[in-house]
């Protein structure tokens, strides 16, 4: 049953991100000073980490900053349309089309840092999917490697549901820790979760030791190292 659900989630995620790919930079991406501040925080955490894996690379908005700092970047995304858009950038990186909720297609200790930004990890197919992903992240990280992620906060769900979003985009709360992200323009939706600090830290245990701090009013900034 788990394999069937994983495959269904992969299809759902692929369909969702394929459908919004051409709208993403215009409708979904954070821009301006907030984006620069967030990225500066990420870069500070991975300073000196040469080999970087980006989960949910998307259109590659972070690539210029990562490459300018000398990082060797590999991207992974489930959406071929997102990857195609990323590959139109003036500077490209190796990319892999795959579902990161499945075993990562990389050798042990291949990377010094793993990034999962913009709520990339908010759509697990199973309750234990974050824990399984954490074990895979630990496997592909060097011994002093780090995972940096941006995660939705449980307390912010009512705010997110009531907030004014771009035309055709809305958040429907389905429980105290779950929601459905709908894009009526693209005609797609994707289920997600939002946890508190303890919940997210526990979700990545026991493989990763996580610390979280607030990121704006709706998210957490997670930094995790191999346990």
UniProtKB/TrEMBL annotation:
GO BP terms in the entry: methylation
Protein name (record): Phosphatidylethanolamine N-methyltransferase
Keywords, alphabetical: Methyltransferase, Transferase
Any Pfam family matching the protein: Methyltransf_11
Entry-linked CDD domains: AdoMet_MTases
Top-level division of the source organism's lineage: Bacteria
Gene Ontology MF terms in the entry: S-adenosylmethionine-dependent methyltransferase activity
Domain spans labelled Methyltransferase type: 54-148
InterPro entries registered for this protein in UniProt: Methyltransf_11, Methyltransf_Superfamily, SAM-dependent_MTases_sf
């Amino acid at each position: 049953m788990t394999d069937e659900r994983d495959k269904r989630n992969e299809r759902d995620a692929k369909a969702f991100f394929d459908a919004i790919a051409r709208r993403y930079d215009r409708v979904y991406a954070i821009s301006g000073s907030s984006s620069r501040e967030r990225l500066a925080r990420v870069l500070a955490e991975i300073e000196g980490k040469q080999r970087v894996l980006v989960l949910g690379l998307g259109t590659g908005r972070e690539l210029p900053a990562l490459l300018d700092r000398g990082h060797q970047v590999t991207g992974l995304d489930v959406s071929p349309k997102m990857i195609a858009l990323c590959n139109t950038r003036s500077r490209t990186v190796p990319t892999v089309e795959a579902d990161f909720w499945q075993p990562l297609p990389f050798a042990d200790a291949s990377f010094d840092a793993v990034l999962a930004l913009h709520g990339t990890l908010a759509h697990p197919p199973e309750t234990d999917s974050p824990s399984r992903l954490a074990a895979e992240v630990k496997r592909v990280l060097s011994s002093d490697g780090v995972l940096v992620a941006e995660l939705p906060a449980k307390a912010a769900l009512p705010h997110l549901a009531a907030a004014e979003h771009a035309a055709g985009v809305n958040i429907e709360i389905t429980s105290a820790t779950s929601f459905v992200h709908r894009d009526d323009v693209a005609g797609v939706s994707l289920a997600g979760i939002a946890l508190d600090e303890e919940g997210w830290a526990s979700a990545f245990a026991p493989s990763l030791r996580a610390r979280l701090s607030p990121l704006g009013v709706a998210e957490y900034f997670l930094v995790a190292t191999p346990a």
